[in-house]
Amino acid sequence: MAIVKIPTPLRVTTSGLDTVQGNGDDLVSVIEDLESQFPGMKERLLDENNELRRFVNIFVNGEDVRFLEGLNTTVTASDEISIVPAVAGG
Question: Domain 2-85 carries which CATH code?
Answer without folding.
Answer: 3.10.20.30
